[in-house]
Amino acid sequence: MGKEVKVLGAWPSPFVMRPRIALHLKSIEYDFIEETMQPKSELLLKSNPVHKKIPVLIHNDKPVCESLVIVQYVDEAFSSGPSILPSDPYDRAIQRFWAAYIDDKWFPNLQGVAKAQTDEARAAALEQTSEGLSLLEDAFVKCSKGKPFFSGDNIGYLDIALGCYLGWLRVSEKMNNVKLLTEDKTPNLLAWSERFSAADAVKDYMPETNKLMEFAKIIMARFKAAASN
Questions:
Q1: pLDDT per residue over 118-137, tens digit each?
Q2: Is the pLDDT of residue 3 over 70?
Q3: What ranges in 41-165 are assigned the alpha helix state H?
Q4: CATH classification at residue 53
Q5: Based on the domain organization, do 102 and 161 belong to the same domain?
Q6: How many CB atoms lie within 10 A of CB 18?
Q7: Same domain? 94 vs 133
Q8: What is residue 149's DSSP assignment?
Q9: Same domain, residue pair 113 and 14
Q10: How many structural domains are present in the chain?
Q11: How confident is the model at residue 24, as a pLDDT?
């Protein structure tokens, strides 16, 4: 199976974590092809000519792009392992809604913390990130129905959608000397984050915080250089 399935990606990317976790949940072997992005490989440009971004899943020589699209594809293409998306149409719709919120609204606020050029802008981005986590705390309570994960007893679609950002969330906490997941404001998310990070399907792909922080410093230096030009 490893020859039939390939993932193009890079270790710091939260988006690349998503298909890797999904494939692990489905017990699918695959070849991981590390992309440096400097320059982008011919295989990447050929496989994702529209966005030219990672991750890309290649299954039987057919590319599938965009991380959450890939997760849904893996769920539908491979019958092995547990279902990643809920079977109930309403539950499935709710998880897709929150996954879209995370990518379209919440993560850009987290990125805004790193991109901020002033203390005021950084504080505002941290506040928006924290407010978003409060919304996701409520979503967890409703979606999990008292179970360990958003999807119930097992890691599923929304767990993957949010969990892939935990490494970057911890980097933001450490670099700004703040706590965004806390026992008083987001107790359920805090406990969930620990369970998710320790899960067999996740722990090998979750980047080590200090290593990711060093990478983040390089990215922030690029932001500053671009802003000054």
A1: 999 999 999 999 999 999 99
A2: no
A3: 42-47, 67-77, 89-101, 107-115, 119-144, 157-163
A4: 3.40.30.10
A5: yes
A6: 27
A7: yes
A8: B
A9: no
A10: 2
A11: 98
Is-contact 196 163, C-beta < 8 A? yes
- Domain containing 139 — which CATH number? 1.20.1050.10
**Greatest alpha-carbon span in the chain:** 51
Q: What is the average pLDDT across 48-59? A: 98
One domain, residues 100 and 58: no
Q: What are residue 130's phi and psi, to 5 degrees?
A: -65, -40
- The answer to whether the CB of 166 falls within 8 A of the CB of 196 is yes
Q: Are residues 62 and 126 in the same domain?
A: no
33/204 Cα distance (integer angstroms): 16
Q: Element (H or E) spanning 165, and its range?
A: none
Tokens of 172: 């933001």
Query: What residues contact residue 67 under an 8 Å CB cut-off, 6+ apart?
Result: 15, 16, 18, 19, 55, 164
Domain boundaries, position 63:
5-77
The per-residue pLDDT for 112 is 94
